[in-house]
Design a protein that fits this description.
six-stranded mixed β-sheet; six-stranded parallel β-sheet; DNA-binding; 13 helices; homodimer; 12 strands
DNA sequence: CTGAAAGCGCTAACAA
DNA sequence: TTGTTAGCGCTTTCAG
């Protein structure tokens, strides 16, 4: 592996000059630039990122922190990751996915080691310990998500409040009056306090009350089986329910089966709306699920931008971006509630 | 951020000694060790990974390379990643997911920059250009997957040949004689030449011929819609088919719908077996799909082990590990073919 | 058993 | 416009 010194020797210039042309840090005459470039080519020079990082205190690597606990990697996650990576790449940074303990234990080892310039946090809980760790460490970071009070933090997030309201608007407009919200039960797991669930649930409760319609909240267990049981539980709690919002991708299938087995047809007897998921995921079901599609790609890009802006010192602004999901209706089948 | 020098000063020892206790590189007397440890605690010392890497030429970071093209992040991928990360962590390494161009263009920048000690490749094609890049770069690497000729490469992979044979054994035992294999059509995409498809297809063709049973291969398009069309195409090609192997998770749902719409019931009229997927994914469908479950976690761990062994110079052996998928039958419903 | 010192390959003043 | 040089924070011989 050729070093800068070797390139400099070969081009007949000094080390510094090579550094300048490599980084564009200073003006170098076209002639020397050409010679240096040629030498780099010939020696197949690659800038040593580690040395650069040590000298400049900047690695140009940012990390997307992903909790090791639970198997939470969904299509949405993947979209966050890919879009943030793409954006980072456009801005001459690298984005890596880093699996870390949700409690934030190993975080400081990583981050204060100087390996990454900043981090993006996802799967944020209401009182996320990682935020404190990061703050204490004085590492630039941005959230995809929000803690309970994020006013002093840079974040981009799904606007769950609006998403729930929009969902209810849509369904109420269709004539529905009895709703259910199905979410994953995270109590007792490391992901307890997961903000999206709590926000969705709070808004759902408040909004159904305000609208004077009936609202039931059901907590669902893992996987397809969990969805099935949720359906049973739901029908026990409100046999007349006509509309369910589900916020747990891997339970949707079970939920549909459970409803089916109970003799209810979707969407004739009951409407099912998948929350903060993707259109492709909604299509995986039969019938296809209408979906409040998460603006994942947009959020991923904005998160990367926000962090890199911070690193560049480009802006003093704390980004506070909230984007609602967008309704995507699965097909033309009527979703109006049947009378039961 | 405290440096080693500061720790040394505070403990009244030399820089070197601190390094020795931090890394356990040399024996240091319990007394000094204690003093050093105390000083580290007090100063909240964190080893600077970048400096360490520069001096030792080892970052203790390994990367799992994931192609930026296509949206190939599945449940199986996630399991590879998580299990490999876990294993790496146990062996005192960090594993990051690195999105890179499947053509291997940006690969050398990353890798020869010295940021990672080695890489794991996944989503390997028959003639994967990344392998050549990596070989030329002289970076330790391991494949999850195989190129056409992997005899000189360290790899772990699903044994697709055995998986297909086992699948056919199972289904033939049930009385099936007319088979179809549904796979994604990757021609013309960056992922063309994806090894699992080609291996599965070759084995399927050879094995159905050898067994003197009927075999049809169908290439499916993207998503649910692709699966649906695949079903139609399949029934046109072989209206009497009773058994389909599908190797494309996101088309399974569409396939089932397509079969259903054609008046075929699963598993009564036609058996559907999902290949190299996960049990949880199989449960997402109705009816639940029997699945040849990919040994993802095992392979992920073994890949990490193989790479780290290589880095440690522990072994000269090239790991060549092939693990078949395991049949997991969805439910007790009969899968024997109906006569049509 | 511990200390001293020479790098690792680069960046960024500061000179020239 | 280019060259010099002092670090960045650590690892690792080599002495003692």
């Amino acid at each position: 592996m050729a070093t800068m010194q070797q390139v400099a020797d070969r081009a007949g210039v000094s080390l510094g000059t090579v550094s300048f042309v490599v980084n564009g840090t200073k003006y170098v005459s076209p002639a020397t630039t050409a010679r240096v470039t040629a030498a780099m080519q010939e020696l197949n020079f690659r800038n040593n990122v580690v040395a650069r990082a040590l000298a400049s205190r900047r690695t140009r690597i940012i990390a997307l922190l992903f909790p090791t606990a639970g198997d939470r990697f969904s299509a949405t996650t993947s979209e966050f990751f890919m879009s943030a990576a793409e954006r980072a790449s456009q801005r001459d940074h690298h984005l890596v996915l880093w699996p870390v303990d949700p409690a934030g234990q190993d975080l400081d080892d990583l981050v204060s080691g100087g390996l990454v310039d900043g981090v993006i946090l996802m799967e944020v809980r209401m009182d996320d310990p990682r935020v404190d760790v990061l703050s204490a460490l004085d590492v630039p970071f941005t959230l995809i998500g929000r803690t309970r009070d994020s006013s002093g933090l840079p974040f981009v997030d799904i606007d769950f409040e609006t998403t729930i309201e929009d969902s209810l608007d849509h369904l109420v407009g269709l004539g529905h009056r009895r709703f259910a919200l199905v979410l994953e039960d995270l109590d007792g797991t490391p992901m307890a306090g997961y903000a999206p669930h709590l926000r969705a649930q709070a808004t759902f409760a408040a909004s159904t009350t305000r609208r004077r319609v009936h609202g039931t909240v059901i907590h669902s267990g893992q996987g397809s089986e969990g969805g099935r049981r949720a359906a049973a539980e739901l029908l026990a709690a409100d046999p007349a329910v006509t509309s369910v919002l589900i916020m747990k991708e891997d339970s949707s299938a079970g939920l549909l089966v459970g409803l089916y087995e109970a003799g209810l047809r979707v969407p004739t007897d009951v409407s099912v709306l998948s929350l903060a998921s993707s259109a492709a995921a909604g299509d995986q079901h039969f019938p296809r699920l209408s979906t409040m599609v998460a603006p994942s790609r947009e959020l991923g890009m904005r998160a990367a931008d926000a962090l890199i802006d911070q690193l560049d010192g480009t802006t003093g602004e704390l980004p506070h971006l909230l984007l609602p999901c967008e309704l995507r209706i699965a097909d033309s089948t009527a979703e109006a509630p049947a009378s039961r």
